[in-house]
Design goal:
With about 220 residues, the chain is an alpha/beta fold. Helix content is about 25%, strand content about 25%. The strands form 2 sheets. A 7-stranded mixed sheet has the order 5-4-3-6-7-9-8. α2 runs parallel beside α4. It starts with a helix and ends in a 6-residue tail after the last strand. The protein binds S-adenosylmethionine. This is Methyltransferase-like protein 23.
């Protein structure tokens, strides 16, 4: 995308995460996300992203100093927030979608952050995947699970998904890859609302949060 297109097709949206308490020392982080006015995947913030970012925000103490990979990051709201919360984050999107990798970089740039961005295509074992450090957490909003957790057996995959069909289930995949999954109720991290982080997302979309991890890390 050239500069001309950039200036005409990009709108910056702001998401503010803050403590609910009303004291003087209220903690607040605002993340600016440049969205490309294009209906393709990975060009704007999906409803799931703001819900996952809210989970990151509420659990930010667990992320401090930890290694985190965001997969299918698109405009990277959860990963960039995790960076601001003190995690060592790598952002990734499909190696075959350079415009999505550009979006990851653009969000970092707008937030004045230097975060590694790598092309990782689900299901492909590449040098970029193998070069990742051992991971504590993997973030993915509105993506399907891919078993790269194998190289980091204790990693947790924090993921949100949008309910689009009652027929879709990942149960067979969980069984196949020896994974377990915990559903996280939205109310437990104050995400049971149509408006998060001062935005109009997630709106009326049905978004669910779950944590996936290896059932028995030693049994590979
Ligand atoms: C529905 S969008 C969600 C984007 C972002 N996580 C969010 O919630 O705003 C799905 C993302 O997955 C990425 N993606 C799709 N297929 C992929 C693949 N095979 N490997 C890696 N990333 C992929 C897309 O480029 C896109 O950024």
């Amino acid at each position: 995308m050239n500069e001309h297109e950039d200036s005409h097709n990009i709108a910056v949206k702001r998401f503010t995460f803050e403590e609910e308490c009303k004291d003087e020392l209220r903690t607040r982080i605002t993340i600016s996300v440049p969205e490309v006015l294009d209906p393709q995947y990975g060009m704007y913030v999906w409803p799931c992203a703001v819900v996952l970012a809210q989970y990151v925000w509420i659990h930010r103490a667990e992320l401090e100093g930890k290694t985190v990979l965001e997969i299918g990051a698109g405009v990277s709201l959860p990963g960039v927030l995790a960076t601001r919360c003190g995690a060592q984050v790598t952002l990734s999107d499909s190696a075959e979608l350079p415009h999505c990798l550009d979006n990851c970089r653009r969000t970092c740039q707008v937030n004045q952050l230097s975060v590694p961005v790598v092309g990782i295509t689900w299901g492909q074992v590449t040098s970029s995947l193998l070069a990742l450090p051992a991971l504590d957490f993997i973030l993915g909003s509105d993506v399907f699970y891919e078993p790269e957790v194998e190289r980091s057996p204790h990693a947790q995959f924090w993921t949100t998904y949008q309910e689009r069909s009652a027929d879709w289930s990942i149960e067979a995949l969980l069984h196949k890859w020896n994974l377990k999954c915990a559903d996280i109720p939205l109310e437990s991290f104050r995400a049971n609302t149509e408006h998060l982080a001062g935005s109009s997302l997630p709106g009326s979309h049905t978004v669910q949060m779950m944590i996936i991890s290896l059932k028995e890390p030693w049994k590979r």
